[in-house]
Amino acid sequence: MKETIKKAVCIMSGGMDSTLAAYMMKKEGYEIVGVHFNYDQRTQAKELECFEAICKELEVKEKYVLDLDFFAKLGASALTDKNIDVPTSGVEEGVPVTYVPFRNGIFLSMAAAIAEKEGASVIAIGVVEEDSSGYPDCRENYIEAMQRAINLGTKDETNIEIKMPLVHLKKSEIVQEAVNLGVALELTWSCYKNEDAACGVCDSCRLRLNGFEKAGVTDPIKYE
Question: Which residues of this UniProt protein bind ATP (predicted)?
Fold first, then answer.
């Protein structure tokens, strides 16, 4: 009897969190289907380069790189609108200007279509609720609601679980787990501003550096 291959569609930005989530799925015995989005974000070229390198490292056979011009036309985020500065002071109130409206909802919807086509039982996403930037589309109850909606809107025989293995971890715990799993952290990128050397002062760089410091680990990427 032929063994059924377990597949996980992994939404992979090239960042540390989504990369760790993909490594965790591989450890659980899933064949990884990598999905990456180019949405005219400031560090699009670097993120794509990281995604390709990480897929090679994980020996991903099937991958999708999807181009979306929607977010650039929409604007409303410092990541996609060059007229809005990426904040570097670290003192933003409320939802940051780097929030991209409903991004994870759109990404999950597209990943669901891929999962149904590929016969995957899992979509993995590296959302972090407790120690993140405060994005509303990274909340556990929101992702659970998306899972219900996806299963209502797909074929009866389609049953997809959205795994979010990092949702309750702090950044330092993510760094430690990545080290434990042998994640190629030097291939990951978190900076919102730069593509050559990370700025070290944007919200994402601050969270990353703080996580490495608290974990007692040296970040292998280059900073300005």
Answer: 12-22
Cα 93 to Cα 85, 86, 137, distances in angstroms = 16, 14, 17
**21 labelled as ligand-binding?**
yes
pLDDT at position 113, please? Answer: 98
Alpha-helical runs (H) found in the chain: 16-27, 44-57, 70-74, 103-118, 140-152, 171-181, 203-215
18 annotated as a binding-site residue: yes
Instruction: Tell whether 216 is in a known binding site.
Output: no
24 is in an annotated binding site: no
Residue 88 and residue 202: Cα distance in Å, rounded? 5
76 is in an annotated binding site: no
Inter-residue contact 189 to 221 (CB < 8 Å): yes
Q: Which residue type does 147 have?
A: Q
Cα distances (angstroms) measured from residue 185 to each of 86, 116, 135, 222: 24, 30, 23, 12
pLDDT, position 4: 82
Closest to 127 (Cα-Cα) out of 135, 138, 140, 136: 138
Domains annotated on the chain, with CATH: 7-215 (3.40.50.620)
Q: Is 205 annotated as a binding residue?
A: yes
State residue 93's pLDDT score. Answer: 80
164 annotated ligand-binding residue: no
Profile the chain (224 residues) by mean pLDDT over runs of 10 residues: 86 98 98 98 98 98 97 96 92 88 97 98 95 86 98 97 97 97 98 98 95 98 98
15 appears as a binding residue in the annotation: yes
Q: Is 20 annotated as a binding residue?
A: yes
